[in-house]
Request: fold
Amino acid sequence: MTSPDPESGAKTEESVVQSIDAQTRRLAQNAGLDTDLESQVPPVYGRFTQQIIVVLLVAAIVALLFILF
Reply:
C-alpha cells in the first residue's frame, strides 16, 4: 500500500474548508446575519418600498417643477 500524497490531502482538506465556509455563508445570508463588509447579499427592497420611493421621487420632481415655473 502506498501512503496518500500530502498534496492531494491538502487539496481535499482545503476543499472541505471551502465547502464549510460556503455553507456558513449561505446560512448567515438566509438568517440575515451577514453584516460583514464582504457580504454577498445586496440590499433588497420589496415591491411596496419600491413603489413608495417612486411616488416620493415623482412628488419631488413635480414640486421642483412647480417651484421653478
Observations:
- Residues 58 and 64 are 10 Å apart (CA to CA).
- Residues 6-31 form the longest helix (26 residues).
- The mean pLDDT is 78.
- The helical segments are 6-31, 47-68.
